Amino acid sequence: MNDSVPSLDPVALAAARAKGKRPWYLNDPEVEKVLSIAMALAAELAVCRERLDTLERLLEQKALLTQEEIEGYIPDSAAEGERNARHRLYISRILRILKQSFDAPDASEDLEQIAKKLSEI
């Protein structure tokens, strides 16, 4: 990693909010939140599939690994830990809309309603 680039916290960045009130385009904000999550998943998956395809093609072209070797790989505990950390960041990005909603509750909701919503997650 380049030492001149500052370290950024992806979880904090995923929770960052634009100034002002969030615009809602659908009639139901809850439906819009689900759509936002689905679109975040779609974007993440598209990028991952492109990168995975590139890597697998390059590995086979250079005769470094075959598809069978890739499919049969079993990660060690260090790799598993790194994957779990990436999963945490991934989920933070996907569920960003929910975190932001709970960080800035609607003024019409009382604390009891907010606590109920949180307990249902």
Question: Keywords, please?
Answer:
single chain, 6 helices, elongated
Report on this structure.
- With 121 residues, the protein is mainly alpha-helical.
- The chain has a domain at 25-106.
- Helix content is 64%, strand content 0%.
- The chain is built from six helices and no strands.
- The chain has helices at residues 10-14, 29-61, 67-71, 77-94, 96-103, 111-119.
- The longest helix is centred in the middle third of the chain and has 33 residues, at 29-61.
- The chain is elongated and about 60 Å long.
- The chain starts with 9 loop residues before the first helix and ends with a helix.
List the helices and strands and how they pair.
Layout: H1 10-14, H2 29-61, H3 67-71, H4 77-94, H5 96-103, H6 111-119
Order of helices and strands: HHHHHH
Radius of gyration: 20 Å
Shape: elongated
Number of helices: 6
Could you report the average pLDDT, rounded to the nearest whole number? 80
N-end to C-end Cα span: 36 Å
Provide the low-confidence segments as ranges.
none
Helicity range of the residues? Answer: 55-70%
The count of strands amounts to 0
Main beta sheet, described? none
Strand content: under 5%
Structural class: mainly alpha
